[in-house]
Each structure stands twice: as C-alpha cells, then as structure tokens.
Amino acid sequence: MNTEDTEGGEGFTLPRSRLANERLHALIPGGAHTYAKGDDQYPEHLAPVIDHGRGAHVWDVDGNRYIEYGSGLRSVSLGHAHPRVIEAVRRELDRGSNFVRPSVIEIEAAERFLATVPTAEMVKFAKNGSDATTAAVRLARAVTGRPRVAICGDHPFFSTDDWFIGTTPMPAGIPATTTDLTVTFPYGDLAATEELLTRYEGDIACLILEPATHTEPPPGYLAGLRELADRHGCVLIFDEMITGLRWSEAGAQGLYGVTPDLSTFGKALGNGFAVSALAGRRELMERGGLRHSGERVFLLSTTHGAETHSLAAATAVLTTYAEEGITARLHALGERLASGVREAAAGMGVGDHVVVRGRASNLVFATLDEKGQPSQEYRTLFLHRLLAGGVLAPSFVVSSALSEADIDHTVDVVAQACAVYRKALDAGDPTPWLTGRPVKPVFRRRA
C-alpha cells in the first residue's frame, strides 16, 4: 500500500485506477452502474477500481489492499466470498440457472425467508430493490383504488422508478403529472402524517418509509403509523432494504414488533448476489397471484428473479444469520468501531466535527466544518486520509468478516486523519489539504 505521508497526502496516487476510471467513463454513463459508486464520490483521481475482495478486504488494480466498509453498498454483510454462501452457489452451478418452470429451490428459499421473517405470509423474489418497492406501490394502489403515494421525505432513496425519482433533484425525463401523485411526510411526526392523510382523505394508497435509519424511531411512532394506516384505509409499507437482517434477522419489524402490510428486502439478503424480496400479508400478496376472484395485479414478473444461484445464496445467508448470530456480531463490531472513532476524534479535538451516527450495525459519519455544518470539502479531506491509510470507507457500515485488529487499525487511521482535520479547522480552510475538486452529493441537478 502506498502510504507515503505528506501534509496534504500528495504521496498517495492511484495511476492504474485513474486509467481504469477513464475507460469506465468512456464505456458506461457515469463510470459506474450505481451513482453511489461513482468516482465523484471520492477525492479527485483517488477512486480505487477494485480487482478482487476476500472477507473484509479488497484489492485495487494498483495492488493496494484496503479494509472495506459499506461493502457493496451494504449488501455484503458477511464479507466477500463467504465460504457458506459460495459453497451453496457452487452446488447449483452445474445444475442449471433458469428454467421454463419454477425450480425446487424457489420453494426452499421462500420457506427459509418466511421462517426468518414470520411477520410475512408470502414472498416474491426479484433482482433489485426498486422492482420490489415499485411492486409494493403498484399493489397498494390496486387494492385501495387510490392514486397517491406518500413517501417519507427524510429518507434518501426508495426506487429508480418515476414515482420516486421525480421527487429528487434529478427529475429529468419524468412528467410532472407522475411526480404530482407522490407526496411526502416527515419521519417521527405522527401529527404531520395524519394531517397529510386528512388533506388527501381517500386519495393516498400507501405510506412507505424505512422503519429506522441513523435515528431510532420515537417511542410509539411505528405503532402510531400502523394505527393511522388502518384508520385511513391505506397500506403500510416498510422498506427494509437496509434494516433487513442488520436490525434483527427478521428486520426492523421483528425488532420493534410492528407488522407492516408489505415490506421489501434486499442488500444483505444475497451477500452481494442479486436478489430482493417483496413480502407481506397473504390477502394483499395473493392479488398478484392466481388464487383469487378479483382483478389481476401485475405484481412482479422477472426473467431472472428465480435464478437459482442467487436464491441459493439467499438461503445460505439466512441460514448463516440464524445459526451464527451474525446480527449480534455486526452490532458488537460496530460498537467497538464507533467507540474507537469517537475517542480518536475527541482526542484530536475534532469530536464535534467528525461525528459517527446510526445503529451500531449501520454506522455512517458526518464531516462538519468550523460552523458545524456538513461539508463536502472536509469529507474529501477525511476520505483522502482514510484511503492513504488503507481504509475504504464511504461509511462505517461493518461486515461480520471484520476482525478486531481491522477495527483497531481503522481507528488508528481515523486518528491520523483527524490530526490533519484539526489543522484544517485551525486554518479555517481545508483547501490546502485537498488535491482537486471536492466530492459531490449523489443527487444533484447538474453533472
């Protein structure tokens, strides 16, 4: 690893990654298949292009090894190439991957999922989270006969589809008539949500939200939403893409004891393999099936939704979580990391500027300027120093493959980064410690 230490980190370079990024941009719009993986999310010319990963470590095309956090945008929670998952997939490799009729593994995966998430009665698998959340919204509209969707305005992402993207700073190509059918409510505020439901009485098909993010739900909040949805006749949807498995094996609904009508899972479900799930009450889910007398709902119909390798991976992941206490391990590792980072930041005098937030299994960090405001410039400085120390961390979301030694090394690197952060704060300007443009928000109107 190139860790030559200079005041501004100038000794850390990634020449092969830089060339690979140029090739990516020439072939792929944005240079990545997910905006959050774009090189604009990293210091200029310092976005590593990954060659391979194992456990909690990845190696870039320049030969540098990193301790990795937020692996696969939170999807690789067991670590790369996890033995139980790989073995389950390997058993299917020479048995075929997709057939003209359902395979027996679809039964096994569904049974395992519903045993893990007993608050759901039926499940349907897909390949990505957007398909699942859009199917949930479509189903809610069908069963209620209502057009409007109410999304939690405090949560960053629900779908790539028009009903959500039209509400972001990137609405190009989406008709206003579509966006007008989506309204927002604030997280944690039952009174404001009830006011919204009353204002659009009989018009809102569903409430969709992440049950928890970097803040815990206020006491009684989720139960209050359940009561509001019942009283106003709309469908309550929990987006458990992130909370699923990380909050508890049964997701946030299992932890907090509030059952939604529908819920969507992904991320950790496949440990990097492409699989997502829509789950919920039989009465609703069956409207997308064949055993009812009502109008049919086009729920989910995907060529690759039942691809055997990903369902084998999901089954292995769910089994591993249940048998090995993975959720508890994620929390223990996260608590060790959060404690260490907070202590390191405080020790360098930047405890009010480098701030760790969130549940221990899903930690994020904020980088604040001299006035305590979020700063892309200070985030750039911080990420640069982490990279130079062998830590790839757009967040501090842990995987169970991390060792205590990995955590301790990360804390040491954070302390070094915080020392530079303090110098920049004292100077009142982080610019001398930057080597190019600042990192950019994912959602913005202009490239």
Features:
447 residues; alpha/beta; 15 helices; globular; EC 5.4.3.8; glutamate-1-semialdehyde 2,1-aminomutase activity
Task: Count every beta strand, where a strand is a DSSP E run of 2 or more residues.
Answer: 13
**Beta-strand residue percentage:** 5-15%
Helical content class:
25-40%
Strand order of the largest sheet: 4-10-9-8-7-5-6
Mean pLDDT: 96
Helix/strand structural class: alpha/beta
Major beta sheet summary: 7 strands, mixed
Radius of gyration: 22 Å
What is the chain-wise order of helices and strands?
Answer: HEEEHHHEHEHHEHEHEHEEHHHEEHEH
- Distance separating the two termini: 32 Å
Number of helices: 15
What is the global morphology? Answer: globular
pLDDT below 50 for ≥5 consecutive residues: which ranges?
Answer: 1-8
Family: Belongs to the class-III pyridoxal-phosphate-dependent aminotransferase family.
Cofactor: pyridoxal 5'-phosphate
InterPro entries: Aminotrans_3, PyrdxlP-dep_Trfase, PyrdxlP-dep_Trfase_major, PyrdxlP-dep_Trfase_small
Protein name: Glutamate-1-semialdehyde 2,1-aminomutase
Overview of this structure, please?
The chain has 447 residues and is α/β, with parallel strands linked by helices. It is built from 15 helices and 13 strands. The chain has helices at residues 15-27, 71-74, 83-93, 104-116, 129-144, 162-165, 176-179, 190-199, 221-232, 251-256, 282-285, 308-324, 326-347, 376-388, 404-427; strands spanning 50-54, 57-60, 65-68, 122-126, 148-152, 182-185, 204-209, 235-239, 262-265, 276-280, 354-357, 364-367, 391-392. It has a seven-stranded mixed sheet, with helices on both faces. A four-stranded mixed sheet has the order 1-2-3-13. Strands 11-12 form a two-stranded antiparallel sheet. Strand 8, helix 10 and strand 9 (262-265) form a beta-alpha-beta unit. The protein is globular and about 70 Å long.
